Amino acid sequence: MLSAYLDDSGTHDDSAVVLWAALCANQFQWDLLTELWQKQLDSPCPGKERISRFHMFDCHNSRGEFTGWTRTETDLSIHEFTRIILRAGIYGRAFATPRKDWDELITGDVRVIFGDAEGFCVRNSYVQITKWAKEKANYDRDLAFIFDSRPHRQAENSILFDIHKQFSEENGEDPKLVSLTFGSSTDMPALQAADVFAWEMYQHAKDIMANRTTPGKLLRSNLQNLAKGGRITSDFADRASIKLLAQRRAQDDPNAIANIASYLRAAMA
């Protein structure tokens, strides 16, 4: 079975950009990642004791289990955990949206359909991960989604999963969406790995927002290493693309848009 583990970054209310990122692989690849990850947790850095989980924010800021670590030690640890993702052959997909532009341009019934900035990233995740399974892993028909738990978002994410699953089944498409679960990175090395990828891609999105780079040019060394295998992609919805989406939906049948929005309002009530 194929599995996609997803984690968010920038979903706090005052963030300029919102991102969801996914790591996707088959069970053999996840088993290898878990084995290597557990070994690295046991010995995260020379001279350091075992840690219970790897959390990028804590490590980068020398907090929690990383309190007292030097920048050299945290950078080395981040490098080693990132290398495990590459060694296991995991694929990465990231989806980012600037919050202010989205809130300004996507309103009314169209916003109900596409959600807020975070909701749009989640919707895009379902579509693009399914596309990954078709294009890169069509040897397996079953696909599971595992989200890092955000309790106030679980109802919406579950409804979106059911809609996507129903659409695939009605059209006889593979892969078969078999399950949606919500977990904690404390218990799942795969979600810890997704946290690493999400954090790095969030920094990349912030660099784009600050005009330090473009979507296709990765400045961060860890992302450059992951990109060498050609297994990671990112989708950054800039203001122009958001505006184009709004314009296209404005040309649709308003009754059809209203009906879809009404259905989603009722489903999510």
Q: Could you characterize the architecture of this molecule?
A:
The structure is a single chain. The protein is α/β, with parallel strands linked by helices. It has one domain: Nucleotidyltransferase, domain 5 (2-Layer Sandwich), CATH 3.30.420. Helices cover 54% and strands 17% of the residues. The chain has helices at residues 27-42, 56-60, 71-87, 99-105, 108-114, 117-136, 154-170, 189-209, 221-227, 239-250, 254-268, and strands at 2-9, 17-26, 91-98, 142-148, 176-183, 232-236. It has a six-stranded mixed β-sheet with strand order 5-4-1-2-3-6, with helices on both faces. A hairpin with a 7-residue loop joins β1 and β2. α1 (27-42) packs antiparallel against α3, α5 packs across α11 and α6 packs parallel to α7 (154-170). The protein starts with a strand and ends with a helix.
Question: How do the helices and strands line up, and which of them pair or pack?
Answer:
Elements: E1 2-9, E2 17-26, H1 27-42, H2 56-60, H3 71-87, E3 91-98, H4 99-105, H5 108-114, H6 117-136, E4 142-148, H7 154-170, E5 176-183, H8 189-209, H9 221-227, E6 232-236, H10 239-250, H11 254-268
- Tell me the major beta sheet: 6 strands, mixed
Write down the overall geometry. Answer: globular
The H-and-E topology, N to C, reads as EEHHHEHHHEHEHHEHH
Main sheet: strand order: 5-4-1-2-3-6
- At CATH's second level, what is the architecture? 2-Layer Sandwich
Number of helical regions: 11
